[in-house]
Amino acid sequence: MDTNLEQKIKRIFQQQKAFFKTNQTKDIEFRKAQLRKFRDVFLKHTDDLCEALSIDLGKSRKEAEYVEIQIVISELDYFLENIDEWAKPTPVPSKPHPSGAEVMSKVMYEPYGVTYIIGPFNYPVQLTFSPLIGALVAGNTAILKPSENTPHVAQVLENIVKESFDESYVAVIQGAIEENTLLLSLPFDYIFFTGSPNVGKIVMKAAAEQLIPLALELGGKSPTIVHKDANLDKAVARISYGKWINCGQTCVAPDYIYIHESVKDAFIDKFKAHLNTTYEGNSLGKIGKIVSQNQIKHLAGYLEAAPEKVIYGGSYDLETRHFEATLMDNITWNDQVMQQEIFGPILPIMTYNDINEALEEINNRPKPLALYVFTENQEFADNVLHHTTSGDAEINSTIIHVGSHYLPFGGVGTSGMGKYHGKFSFESFSHRRSVLQVK
C-alpha cells in the first residue's frame, strides 16, 4: 500500500477518535444539523448518482431514484422526526434496594464512538448511506469504504461526504482488500458490514481479535414457496419484480422457487407470458448490468452445467455485462445452481407435493436472509413461518420489507447478525447503558 495512503487512513482515524472525545456528537441539535446538511448535498447530487449507477450497474433513472435515493431520503426524514424521542433516557421499573431506599432506574442510549461502515456493490448508495445516517443519528463518527466494484458511484459518494462533513466526523476511504485489511486492524468502536458471507467471516474474525461489536448484513439462498392455492398472476408479477430488479443482484431476491407440483405448469406458462409482455420477449439489457465480467462467467457456468434445464432466457453479453432473465426447471438440490446464492437473474424452479418434506429440505440448509410464501390460506402461511427460520419473511410479496423503516432488517445465522432501519438503526449503533440511582 502507498505509504501516504496508509498515513492518511491512520490520521483520519485518530482525528475521529479525538473529535468524538469532544462530545459534540452527543448533542442532538448537532446531529440534526449535520443530517439536514447531508440531505441537501445528497439531493443536489441526484443526477451524478443516477449517471454513476447507470454506468456501473445499468440502473435506469426510475430504479435508481426509487431503490437508492428515495429510500435514503425517506429514512433520513424519519430519523429527523424521531431522534429527540429516541434519544431520551427510558425509565424502567426498579427492584427494591436492600436498605429500603428509593431507587430509580433508566436506560440511556450512548454512541459507540468511531464506526467503520463497509458498503457493497449491489445497492452502493442505499446500503452505504443508510447505515451511515443510522450511525450519525446515534451520535457516532464514521469512516466509509464504498465498494471498489462500483467505482463511479464510489467517487460520487466520496464527493457527497466531503461536501457534507469534515473528515474528522465522516470520511470516505477508497480501496479494495489491502485498504480494508488496514482499516480492520484499527481499534474501531463498531463495525457495520454488508456483503457476502465469505467476506463477512473475515470481517468478524478481525473484529473478534479486538472484541469490536459489529453487525453483519449478509445473504443466502432465500426460498420462495408457491402453494397450490396461490394467486398465480400476483405471484408471477411479484416474484418477477423481486428477482429481476438490479439484474438479480439483491441479497433478498427470491433465489429459487418451491412450487406445488399441481400448479407448476400453469405457473411457468404465466411466468413466460409475463416476461414476454414486460420485456417484449427479450430482457437482455433491460434489467440492468451484472457487476463484472467474472460474475457473468460465473453465472453462465450454472447454465452450462445443465443446459437442458434452461426453459426461458439464458442469453448474456460478456462485453456489455448484460444477462437475460432466465428460468430453469426440473431442478434438484444436486444441481450446481443450488449450491450457493445465485446473485444474478437466474431463477431455478423445484416442486413439492408434501410441504413438510420441502420445509425439511429448506431447514437442512443455512438459514436464509428472507423467505417468501404465496398462498391464500393464512393457516398454511403461518405453518410455513412456524416451521422455518429466516432473517425476515413476506407473505404474497417479495423484497418490499427492505424498504420499510418500521421493520427491523437483517439476517440470522450465516445470513447475518444485527438489525437495522428506522429506530432499529438507532439502537444498532447505540450502546444501551443501564443507570441505577438510589436516593
TrEMBL record:
<dbReference type="InterPro" id="IPR029510">
    <property type="entry name" value="Ald_DH_CS_GLU"/>
</dbReference>
<feature type="domain" description="Aldehyde dehydrogenase">
    <location>
        <begin position="7"/>
        <end position="435"/>
    </location>
</feature>
<dbReference type="InterPro" id="IPR016161">
    <property type="entry name" value="Ald_DH/histidinol_DH"/>
</dbReference>
<dbReference type="InterPro" id="IPR054920">
    <property type="entry name" value="BenzalDHMdlD"/>
</dbReference>
<keyword id="KW-0520">NAD</keyword>
<dbReference type="GO" id="GO:0006081">
    <property type="term" value="P:aldehyde metabolic process"/>
</dbReference>
<dbReference type="GO" id="GO:0005737">
    <property type="term" value="C:cytoplasm"/>
</dbReference>
<dbReference type="InterPro" id="IPR012394">
    <property type="entry name" value="Aldehyde_DH_NAD(P)"/>
</dbReference>
<feature type="active site">
    <location>
        <position position="217"/>
    </location>
</feature>
<comment type="similarity">
    <text>Belongs to the aldehyde dehydrogenase family.</text>
</comment>
<dbReference type="GO" id="GO:0004029">
    <property type="term" value="F:aldehyde dehydrogenase (NAD+) activity"/>
</dbReference>
<keyword id="KW-0560">Oxidoreductase</keyword>
<dbReference type="InterPro" id="IPR016163">
    <property type="entry name" value="Ald_DH_C"/>
</dbReference>
<dbReference type="InterPro" id="IPR015590">
    <property type="entry name" value="Aldehyde_DH_dom"/>
</dbReference>
<feature type="active site">
    <location>
        <position position="251"/>
    </location>
</feature>
<dbReference type="Pfam" id="PF00171">
    <property type="entry name" value="Aldedh"/>
</dbReference>
<protein>
    <recommendedName>
        <fullName>Aldehyde dehydrogenase</fullName>
    </recommendedName>
</protein>
<dbReference type="InterPro" id="IPR016162">
    <property type="entry name" value="Ald_DH_N"/>
</dbReference>
